[in-house]
Amino acid sequence: MVTTPLSSQPAPTLSPLNVPQRLLLGPGPSNVNPVVLAAMNTPPLGHLDPDFLGIMDEIQTLLRYVWQTQNRLTYAISGTGTAAMEATLANAIEPGDRVVVCVKGYFGHRLVDMAQRYGAQVHAIHQTWGQPFSKESIQNAIETHRPAVLAIVHAETSTGVRQPLEGLSDLCQAHGTLLLVDTVTSMGGVPIKLDEWGIDLAYSCSQKGLACPPGASPFTLSDRAYAKLQKRSGKVPNWYLDATLLEKYWGSERVYHHTAPINMYYALREALRLLAEEGIENAWERHQQNAEYLWSQLEAIGLQMHVAKEYRLPTLTTVRIPEGIDGKAIARRLLLDYNIEVGGGLGELGGKVWRIGLMGYNSRPENVDRLLQAFKEVL
Amino acid sequence: MVTTPLSSQPAPTLSPLNVPQRLLLGPGPSNVNPVVLAAMNTPPLGHLDPDFLGIMDEIQTLLRYVWQTQNRLTYAISGTGTAAMEATLANAIEPGDRVVVCVKGYFGHRLVDMAQRYGAQVHAIHQTWGQPFSKESIQNAIETHRPAVLAIVHAETSTGVRQPLEGLSDLCQAHGTLLLVDTVTSMGGVPIKLDEWGIDLAYSCSQKGLACPPGASPFTLSDRAYAKLQKRSGKVPNWYLDATLLEKYWGSERVYHHTAPINMYYALREALRLLAEEGIENAWERHQQNAEYLWSQLEAIGLQMHVAKEYRLPTLTTVRIPEGIDGKAIARRLLLDYNIEVGGGLGELGGKVWRIGLMGYNSRPENVDRLLQAFKEVL
User: Fold this and answer.
1) Which residues of A touch B12 (CB under 8 A)?
2) Is residue B344 predicted with pLDDT exceeding 60?
3) Residue B202 is inside which H or E element, if any?
4) How does pLDDT run across B264-317, given as a tens digit for each residue?
5) B65-103: per-residue pLDDT in tens?
6) What is the pTM of this model?
7) How large is the ipTM?
8) Where are the alpha helices (DSSP H) in B118-261?
9) Of chain A residues 306-335, which have a CB less than 8 A from chain B?
């Protein structure tokens, strides 16, 4: 066979990749530990190679440690955090299920939209962007709706609020409700203990507290959540994220499901290994200390934090944009003149706050100093 | 806040990542061009950084070239090829739509399963594993069922068959049917011209003909497919893969949807750039020549190909396992003693064939020689 000539389009001519070096102090991605980045530059193995299967087992063990869970079904979803979010809902919800979603920021709204697509009867409860829910308001919603699933964000990336989760599992279990928690901006940087707190479904991402590039995302199901999945009458309406198929690849059967993003799994394994080497409680402490240093330095130049200190995330800080200042223009100058990325406000907080992340490898005093120096110059 | 001590699990202790170097001559992933692999080791940018948005534009331009299409909606899905497969179905199908799936191998069955999950009334037609469909049998199915979508695999990774696609679009358009094509094992290695052949929806992967790691997967929609999407009555029942949301991120609006797998996009951009530099028609010709060399060398040691030469893929060859030979044991020896991966049979061809890929960077005569030397020693 001789290949026929092209009909139309000529080949584009491009230069080799050339990327500026930025300090990523926005809501994520954050900078990657160089050891993890180097692991990306490792030749791929086959997705059923015994050596690769061993790496998958290590990822499972390390994720259980970082999340403090014994859940058998604890592995990575082959996509970014949003895919892992969708995986929890797709597997937990059957059409017609009542689901209570606690909305106190952008990602609560996303949970509502996703849950509806999976046929849930969603009851959203709302809290001001910048405050956590009280236990009483959640209790009311559970008692009123007796939902199959209660979904709540631990660390709202859009507001910088840490939602206390202790005590919710008792309420949930008393009403046959599964507790589903977004730990995207908490995993690796904010204390979280899935089993002690009775969390049934959780997801996260790789590019924040884990200091890994985005593309492979932590996911876990408790035995209670698995029991609901086993009893569902129809197939999970999402093939790629179907946990009944994924467990056959991640578990002992090793049945081919999809080609894993091999190099992303290398990086995730290394990121988790380094976190275990540091010790998860030391990582939590480091994030807290550096965040407190950031807050004191920002306050010293007259800036105000949006969230009360008690509920402020150590990983992501929302800083109020002072009156008369064009927040977007400042962020653009920081990016283009100083190579520092900070985030703008999202949704209700658009134009009102900057979002400053100190996550994973970036949670270090010298990054606070570099940011503050730049802030002083541009403000 | 002082972080509370851990309740239970101690930190696992692991050595740094240590991965053997394999020559990946199975059905994929294949080895990655070192330039592409090095691009993975580039610090991430933010997913809304102007420099990153420029890279996304380049990916779109390059994908249009490699697929030979002008489709505006041509971009990468942030997952592996299976996610891109699901993206085409999730966006094309509305509940109750009739869908004809041409099943002549494992991935046809996967299309059936996925399409059913999106509420399609699926009519599968079947062909022997190892042969293509005739145009007549497809015409019959279209005339009988008048489906909304006809789904067919161009290059069946499980059988090594190339399905001729020329002429199908006339049949489809005459009956208001969208033509959906799996190009996972053809893109970059087997001639394909989406616009000339009137293909409405297509998907692929990065880890075969493109010589990139897996994790970011080509996806495209024609104007006809987009028109159907615009008219649907409900939301796409998959949030992560919803093309109406994705176009706002990939298009001029630049609305945040999900955090792209930044480093995977770097790699995909470089892999596509190198393919454009080689020239897509030269890449097709190279794959054909090296495959013919492989076939002649395998025949010279007495092995038989499973597929007639006319329909044999240049990217993936199915070789019959001779009587009395334990195919699995041979593959295992090649892997562990020679660091060469070849694939076993899948589904109906389990135990009957080896699957040998010569894809992307691996399509080179020296790889054929190395494989043949090893084959001669183990057989």
Assistant:
1) 58, 61-62, 65, 276
2) yes
3) strand B201-203
4) 999 999 999 999 999 999 999 999 999 999 999 999 999 999 999 999 999 999
5) 999 999 999 999 999 999 999 999 999 999 999 999 999
6) 0.97
7) 0.97
8) 135-145, 168-174, 223-231, 243-250
9) 335
Cα of first residue to Cα of last residue in chain A, in angstroms, is: 66
pLDDT tens string A30-52: 999 999 999 999 999 999 999 99
Q: Which of A86, A194, A262, A290 to mutate to test the interface with B (most CBs of B within 10 A)?
A: A262
Q: How far is CA A135 from the centre of its chain?
A: 23
Give backbone dihedrals phi and psi of A354, rounded to 5 degrees, phi first.
-100, 150
Do B32 and B212 contact (CB within 8 A), yes or no?
yes
What is the separation of C-alpha A39 from the centre of its chain, rounded to a whole number of angstroms? 21
Dist CA B212 CA B230 (whole Å) = 33
Residue B110 CA to residue B130 CA, distance in Å, equals 17
CB under 8 A, 24+ apart: contacts of A305-310: A305/A160, A306/A130, A306/A159, A306/A160, A306/A349, A306/A352, A306/A353, A307/A130, A307/A131, A307/A159, A307/A160, A307/A161, A308/A131
CB-closest option in B3, B113, B205 to A259: B205
Residue in A25, A258, A341 to test binding to B, most B beta-carbons within 10 Å: A258
Say which residue the tokens 């249009």 belong to. Answer: B64
Sheet holding B73-77, edge to edge: B73-77, B217-221, B201-203, B178-182, B149-153, B98-103, B121-126
Q: What is the arithmetic mean of pLDDT over B316-337?
A: 97
pLDDT at residue B4 is higher than 70: no
Mean pLDDT of B181-190: 98
User: How far is Cα B371 from Cα B47, in angstroms, rounded to an integer?
Assistant: 41
